[in-house]
Amino acid sequence: MAKMINRALLKYHISKLTTLNHQLSFLEAYLEIILNAKQTKKDKTLMEMKKRHSEILEPLMMKAGIHSDNVETKKQDLIDQINKKYHWHFKALSQSKKRAMKKQASSDKINHFADKEAKMHQKQEEALQSLALRYTKDENNIAMHQSNYEINKTKLEQKYLTKQTKLDQKFALDTIKIKKNYSDRIERIKKAIEDERPLLKKYAKGLESATEIPQDVILRLENLNMRFGGLLAVDNLSFDVKKGEIFGLIGPNGAGKTTIFNCITRFYRPTSGLMLFRKNPVEVIHLNDYPVHNIIKQGIVRTFQNVELIWELSILDNLLVAAHTTYRSGFFGQLLHMPKLKREEEVMRSKALGILETMGLLQYQYMIPYGLPYGILKKVELARTLMANPKLIILDEPAAGLNDLETENLAHIIKKIRDDYQATIFLVEHDMGLVMDICDTVCAISFGKMLAIGTPTEIQNNPLVRSAYLGEES
């Protein structure tokens, strides 16, 4: 009875600690978003002010005979705009004249088009002359214009510096206020987390379970069997996947590799056997007891052999959809679009943009998947897994369809994900170069049975594996 109470209390405190950790990471991320938004707003205000001042000084510089590439470029842009505007006016008038001639309009109407064209030419010339006068150097009063330019320049610079000082002071005060507000909340949460840790140790101590697995193991399969009628696809398979490693599952076509993934993620219900997953340092769960839609909530995510994206959504939205399990806003919060949900969406968008930048996909954020190269789509699917805060990422043939350069880049990305996101990688792959390059442990199977498990070098030299792949005598 005491053990049952301890186990219940342990689960409660684990849940509480998970919630506190989520609140901590959320507040830290949102604090950074707020500060960045204020910095961006300040920079934008100063940039717009600088642009207005530049527009004021441009004609003064020209009259004063001060050469500037920016002024010349702006002048040419304005000339091009005027010419472009009248080009389309003339084209429209020409088309109207052609239609009138086809309808055999009267000579007065035809002459009317000619008069209108002449007036338009006159207006275009007047606009160009007005612009030229604006940017023409005044040789007679150049000294006066130079003095006028310097006076205005000094005034505008002083005005800009005054505005910059005010904005800097306001930004500094706002930053202190915001940081104080959030730092107090962050410190309270950190203290609550520290208070929870001894309780976890207290209630975890002395709890022994038949399903216990070593601390360094995140996934264990014990005597897993999967039968489809008379076909035994997985035959009494057992192995451990350790935390933080890249574990490779290899075997010939039809060996049962994807079937194993489907069992772990509960797409298939195994015929027999246990699947144990370490959800956290003190809790091991039976994956057999969870429905398929709850597997992702335990920290297990996967990709598929074929790219499975939402083709009507942008790349960024595909990532945001993948974060649906991490939202803490309830049904009514989402229904009414409460402020908490808006803050969560800002944090998720920032996280998605960070992941896209890490994967080298930031330039594709607003594009839909249709028409993008296959290698990009594979990277998007891999990026999407990171939105769910995974502990175990299952990759089903991630290099399928990629060329040598893309495969090499993929190997670098998988290692980076393992290191930066502290995730364990479990992959099935036929590209032996990739497997031997990135995997810490490799398990070889054939017809659902274990052939060998060990380091890449040990698997390469194993006679049973060579026989299954190359038909050599074992």
Molecular structure report:
Helix content is 58%, strand content 14%. By secondary structure, it is of the alpha/beta class. The longest helix has 63 residues. The strands form two sheets. Strands 6-7-8-3-9-10 form a six-stranded mixed sheet, with helices on both faces.
Tell me the radius of gyration. Answer: 34 Å
The main sheet orders its strands as: 6-7-8-3-9-10
Biggest β-sheet, characterized? 6 strands, mixed
Order of helices and strands: HHHHEEEHEEEHHHHEHEHEEHH
Overall pLDDT, averaged?
84
Structural category:
alpha/beta
Basic shape = elongated
Share in helix: 55-70%
Q: Strand-residue fraction?
A: 5-15%
The poorly predicted ranges are none
The number of distinct β-strands equals 10
Number of helices: 13
User: Termini, distance in Å?
Assistant: 55 Å
What is the gist of this entry?
The chain is an alpha/beta fold.
Question: Keyphrases for this structure?
Answer:
single chain, 474 residues, alpha/beta, six-stranded mixed sheet, four-stranded antiparallel sheet, 13 helices, 14% strand, elongated
Chain-wise SSE layout:
Layout: H1 2-63, H2 69-102, H3 107-134, H4 142-204, E1 217-228, E2 231-242, E3 246-250, H5 257-264, E4 272-280, E5 283-286, E6 300-302, H6 315-322, H7 331-335, H8 339-358, H9 374-385, E7 392-396, H10 404-420, E8 424-428, H11 432-438, E9 441-446, E10 449-454, H12 456-460, H13 463-470
Parallel strand pairs: 3-8, 3-9, 6-7, 7-8
Antiparallel strand pairs: 1-2, 1-4, 4-5, 9-10
Helix pairs in contact: 1-4, 1-8, 2-3, 6-9
